[in-house]
Amino acid sequence: xxxxxxxxxxxxxxxxxxxxxxxxxxxxxxxxxxxxxxxxxxxxxxxxxxxxxxxxxxxxxxxxxxxxxxxxxxxxxxxxxxxxxxxxxxxxxxxxxxxxxxxxxxxxxxxxxxxxxxxxxxxxxxxxxxxxxxxxxxxxxxxxxxxxxxxxxxxxxxxxxxxxxxxxxxxxxxxxxxxxxxxxxxxxxxxxxxxxxxxxxxxxxxxxxxxxxxxxxxxxxxxxxxxxxxxxxxxxxxxxxxxxxxxxxxxxxxxxxxxxxxxxxxxxxxxxxxxxxxxxxxxxxxxxxxxxxxxxxxxxxxxxxxxxxxxxxxxxxxxxxxxxxxxxxxxx
Length: 332
Fold this sequence. Notes:
Blueprint: E1 10-13, H1 14-28, E2 32-36, H2 52-56, E3 61-63, H3 68-80, E4 84-91, H4 92-95, H5 99-106, H6 109-112, E5 122-127, H7 142-146, E6 152-154, H8 159-164, H9 166-171, E7 176-181, E8 188-191, E9 204-207, E10 212-216, H10 221-233, E11 238-242, E12 245-247, H11 251-261, E13 264-271, H12 276-288, E14 297-301, H13 310-316, H14 320-331
Parallel strand pairs: 2-3, 2-4, 4-5, 5-7, 6-7, 10-11, 10-13, 13-14
Antiparallel strand pairs: 1-8, 6-12, 9-11
Helix pairs in contact: 3-5, 10-14, 11-12
């Protein structure tokens, strides 16, 4: 607290904000524990859990064997036993080894038990490309999980959401998957004290605009904001919508933005076919067709395994220039 009892902003990074969220969760509820590959002595593959083992001990910060199916299953079992597990899967690609546990157990038990067996499980995983980690560590598969009823899928794109999304996720009686884009961990900024609990149900307007809506989430948000800044110099006012919650999608916020701007670009680092971008585009067509003054544009990754070579990786991913070009096609 500052002079006169006024709360002050704190300079931090996305990584440190997520670590502080984990620390706060572990301190506030003895049922919470963290488990995953290298989360303990190594401090997490991306350094998020660094220091937590020393602070909370090996019962609360558990290193696991290299078996995603086993430790996600253990997380499901402990959630059924009234614990509040936070399971870290190193990258989204490796989560496919636990897809049976997530889809056939975590997502279905409440339904199949007639409401008797909630699964209050949080699964965190790193997603996305742009760091030359090649095809087995770089894909964006959030849309696959957003397809599954029975789970909630969120993608914190800001330091504030990285710090404050974990608590409501732990309070949710259903499984929550948190996707952290690897390019965001080093992002830094001012973290203001929260004025209200983070809402896991609604999208956020990150930049207001009147001429075109840019819909995105996660690691593509900085690119969309950069594109909006560039478009402003061309006299185009772009509204940037951070979807944040991928399941459930905030359809009302999507429709409201299109009603304000009458044009839309959807930016999604996943592949175009069967993507979240396709879902958002379909919802715009269903709810806002007569509001549109131009076809919906989509900016997605090339439909190839993410390459290792830097210039090929950059060519495969949505870039700011691609977003600007799509906006101009819709407006001009």
